[in-house]
Design a protein that fits this description.
By secondary structure, the protein is of the alpha/beta class. It is built from 15 helices and 12 strands. Among the domains are: 133 residues, Rossmann fold (3-Layer(aba) Sandwich), CATH 3.40.50.10860; 153 residues, NAD(P)-binding Rossmann-like Domain (Rossmann fold, 3-Layer(aba) Sandwich). A 7-stranded mixed β-sheet has the order 9-8-7-6-10-11-12. The protein binds glutamic acid. Glutamic acid binds next to strand 3 and helix 13.
């Protein structure tokens, strides 16, 4: 295919399927590791997939049945771990891919968890808090026997937050007849949450970006950053990078994009968004076309929203030096080749956004120990694990002469395969 030809609709549909992407990348890593055929069969598929129907009474009295999923990809290295997302377009293929990515992510930063993910098909923007609470509690009740501190530990993801985790913790605890804080992470601070958890994914993105800058002898204050998405990951990355002197020249959201050549004042933008509900009309920036913002010359492009923002349709127009994947699965397999040909330094999602699960691990440890750390300790240990994940990934890339993504997958698959083979097959 030439650079400018757009792929056919069925080809694009295939390209955008996250489960196919997860499988393709796993297979490539398994091939290069010359992974045993049996282990390959085991790790290619999830251990368990739950589809559950969630009847909920809406505020107007009607009963609606929502569809929810929880997928356990691997529990070879420890309990399943991964967020729960609420969105209208959630699908089993998406949740399955996200569960596998959690397995690889936990292994890259070497936390003792497997991989899992959940999702509920619903439109949170159209729902009241009371409706969201009822959906969350009934979903939790429906998957009750499959979660627990030693089984599977959910966390926030797209459109879920600390309040959602408090409802899950309470529902689970009511059934156990005692409070079980370690059943979820990302809880509110005064309910067993960890200091630094809200910022953790963004902080991790900053840590690995700074590691990458060192390789290019670049300084934060000379680094122009474009961030796509201003939810938890995007806004926290922006805030923490801004504090370090990075120039955040553009923020791209679903309803508009901003540009300021001197760097946006992020705390002031956060205030504007809190007051108006949107980044649009922020007085200290120009409005810019969303695609133009993605494709402008910059040093770091940080996609921090959903899957498939960098595809074969736009990858050849990107002008960044570093792509730091704050989102899960923002780059398609077809786009990978284009980025490689352009020499863009990719910090793959399973490394770049692993700060969240890392501090989730710290939260789980603190809950089980009943002893809470100060923020400095959390951040120091996060830094240690993120830098180790980055260094291990780059060492694999050099040793095996592969790109960073393949290296991260190889590192992760190697660790999970080793644990799986040590445990052996229970018959
Ligand atoms: N949802 C986050 C992720 O995709 C965090 C998962 C967790 O902390 O378990 O990595």
């Amino acid at each position: 295919m030439s650079e400018t030809a757009s792929p056919s609709a069925p080809a694009m549909e295939q390209e955008l399927n996250p489960w196919l992407a997860a499988e393709t990348r796993f297979s490539e890593a398994a091939d290069r590791l010359e992974l045993d055929y049996g282990l390959r069969r085991v790790l290619r598929v999830p251990e368990r997939e739950i589809t559950t129907y969630i009847p909920v009474q809406l505020d107007d009295g009607r009963i609606e049945v929502f569809v929810g999923y929880r997928v356990h990809h691997s529990t070879a290295r420890g309990p399943g771990k991964g967020g729960i997302r609420f969105a209208p377009d959630v699908s089993l293929d998406e949740v399955r891919a996200l569960a596998a990515w959690m397995t690889w992510k936990g292994a890259v930063v070497n936390v003792p968890f497997g991989g899992a993910k959940g999702g509920v098909i619903c439109n949170p923007i159209m729902m009241s808090q009371a409706e969201l609470e009822r959906v969350t509690r009934r979903y939790t009740a429906n998957i009750l026997e499959f979660i627990g501190p030693e089984k599977d530990v959910p966390a926030p993801d797209v459109n879920t937050n600390a309040q959602t985790m408090a409802w899950i913790m309470d529902t689970y605890s009511m059934h156990q007849r005692h409070t079980v804080t370690a059943v979820v992470t990302g809880k509110p601070l005064n309910l067993g949450g960890s200091r630094g958890r809200t910022e953790a994914t963004g902080r991790g993105c900053r840590i690995v970006t700074e590691e990458a800058l060192k390789r290019f002898s670049m300084k934060p204050e000379d680094t122009r950053v474009v961030i796509q998405g201003f939810g938890n990951v995007g806004s926290m990355s922006a805030k923490l990078m801004h504090e370090r002197g990075f120039k955040i020249v553009s923020i791209i959201e679903w309803d508009g994009a901003l540009y300021n050549a001197n760097g946006l004042d992020i705390p002031s933008l956060m205030k504007h968004r809190a007051a108006t509900g949107s980044i649009v009309d922020f007085p200290e920036a120009e409005a810019i076309d969303r695609e133009e913002a993605m494709e402008q010359p910059c040093d770091v492009l940080l996609p921090a929203a959903r899957e498939n923002t960098v595809t074969s349709a736009n990858a050849h127009r990107l002008q960044c030096r570093i792509l730091c994947e704050g989102a899960n699965g923002p780059t398609t397999v077809a786009a990978d080749e284009i980025l490689a040909a352009k020499g863009i330094f990719v910090i793959p999602d399973i490394l770049a956004n692993a700060g969240g699960v890392t501090v989730s691990y710290f939260e789980w440890v603190q809950n089980r120990q009943g002893y809470y750390w100060n923020e400095q300790l959390v951040n120091e240990r996060l830094n240690e694990l993120m830098v180790a994940g980055f260094t291990d990934t780059l060492a694999f890339a050099e040793k095996h002469k592969v790109n960073n993504r393949t290296a991260a997958y190889m590192l992760a698959v190697d660790r999970v395969a080793f644990a799986t083979s040590l445990r052996g097959m229970y018959a």
